[in-house]
């Protein structure tokens, strides 16, 4: 118990023969409390810090493995961004593939004319399985793997860069660091995410062929700009959604850390914070996602299916047509699957990202220390 408390407060661990507490030992508690108060006053807010404490669920480092804290200060902004990008790419591919079936159902529910084909979410699941089997829930999986890896790497890498960069300014409000970093990440990653989502949703809506064939068809019919159909709607959705999700997670994380007085989240806590942040973001931005889906699933020339055979002229025109034909309920289509998808995605995504990032960070620091040791030996 004493060893664990001392370690969490940054104090030397007591020796084994000193673990027995006597009554006189309790007199040292005020000095211990003063030390803890000094530590908390000299640190920034939890969501503004770049702490990289190693969680308990990761294997303990070996004797030859350097502590992240010992070399983290020597890492540049680019190195931190690249480490974040590596963790984000791994987490993004894993999370998107796991939750692709939910995203497929959500897309089918939001596509034009879905209310006439599917009675509810369960009916969409049953009809998808009856028509295409299990593979029907994984339409466009190759585009998802490639696109999600790239977009998640860019997103988390930019967020880590922005968070580290903004933290260097002492006068910058710490409370604004999460939303600003989240906005920077979303602007950078949308350039990759939009073509990936476009191809995936075209296939989910009924487009024939493999992912690369759908890509070629889009380029032939609409050119390169055809890959960015619904780009403005995607930014309109992703910026608020990204800022809400990323900021909510950072704020919830900070609140939990202050309450638990720990330097990191336990696995259950990270999953809970991620799920709640994703649910909040998804529920508030579903109307924007409906508009984006309608713009992305429209096609020129031959229609991919009868439910996507309508053309929209832009975001405002799409909103007006939805309100005219379906009322306000039309802007909430697919909210259930979307909230569930976003909650699961955020829970898995943030947990996977933190785990992958810390693993990459430890290995990178170990290799860097070995490289520096070899250089020092060769020069001497």
Automatic annotation (TrEMBL):
The chain crosses the membrane at residues 81-102, 135-156, 176-194. It is a multi-pass membrane protein. Its main location: membrane. Solcar repeats lie at residues 79-165, 173-255, 265-359. It comes from Clitoria ternatea (Butterfly pea). PROSITE patterns: SOLCAR. The lineage of its organism: Eukaryota, Viridiplantae, Streptophyta, Embryophyta, Tracheophyta. GO terms for cellular component: membrane. This is Mitochondrial carrier protein. Belongs to the mitochondrial carrier (TC 2.A.29) family. The keyword Membrane applies. Keywords: Membrane, Repeat, Transmembrane, Transmembrane helix, Transport. InterPro entries: MCP_dom_sf (IPR023395), MCP_transmembrane (IPR018108). Pfam families: Mito_carr. It is found in: Membrane. The keyword ATP-binding does not apply.
């Amino acid at each position: 118990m004493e060893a664990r408390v001392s370690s969490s407060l940054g104090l030397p661990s007591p020796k084994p023969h000193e673990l027995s507490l006597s009554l006189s030992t309790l007199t040292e508690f005020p000095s211990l409390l003063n030390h803890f108060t000094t530590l908390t006053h000299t640190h920034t807010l939890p969501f503004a810090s770049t702490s990289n404490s190693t969680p308990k669920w990761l294997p303990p480092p070996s004797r030859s493995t350097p502590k992240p804290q010992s070399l983290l200060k020597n890492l540049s902004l680019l190195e931190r961004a690249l480490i974040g990008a590596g963790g984000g790419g791994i987490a993004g591919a894993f999370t998107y593939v796991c939750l692709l079936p939910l995203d497929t159902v959500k897309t089918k529910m939001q596509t034009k004319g879905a209310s006439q084909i599917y009675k509810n979410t369960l009916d969409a699941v049953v009809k998808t399985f009856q028509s295409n089997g299990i593979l029907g829930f994984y339409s466009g999986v190759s585009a998802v793997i490639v696109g999600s890896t790239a977009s998640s790497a860019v997103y988390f890498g930019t967020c880590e860069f922005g968070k580290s960069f903004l933290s260097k300014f002492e006068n910058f409000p710490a409370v604004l660091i999460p939303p600003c970093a989240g906005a920077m990440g979303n602007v950078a990653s949308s350039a990759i995410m939009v073509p990936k989502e476009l191809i995936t949703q075209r296939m989910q809506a009924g487009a024939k062929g493999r992912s690369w064939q759908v890509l070629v068809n889009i380029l032939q019919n609409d050119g390169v700009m055809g890959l960015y159909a619904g780009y403005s709607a995607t930014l309109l959705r992703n910026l608020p959604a990204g800022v809400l999700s990323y900021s909510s997670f950072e704020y919830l994380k900070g609140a939990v850390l202050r309450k638990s007085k720990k330097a990191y989240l336990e696995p259950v806590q990270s999953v809970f914070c991620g799920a709640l942040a994703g649910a909040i973001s998804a529920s508030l931005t579903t109307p924007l996602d409906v508009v984006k889906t309608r713009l992305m699933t429209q096609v020129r020339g031959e229609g991919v299916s009868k439910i996507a055979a309508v053309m929209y002229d832009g975001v405002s025109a799409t909103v007006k047509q939805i309100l005219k034909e379906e009322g306000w309920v039309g802007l909430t289509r697919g909210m259930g699957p979307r909230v569930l998808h976003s909650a699961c995605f955020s829970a898995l995504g943030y947990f996977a990202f933190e785990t992958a990032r810390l693993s990459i960070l430890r290995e990178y620091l170990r290799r860097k220390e070995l490289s520096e040791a070899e250089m020092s030996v060769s020069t001497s």
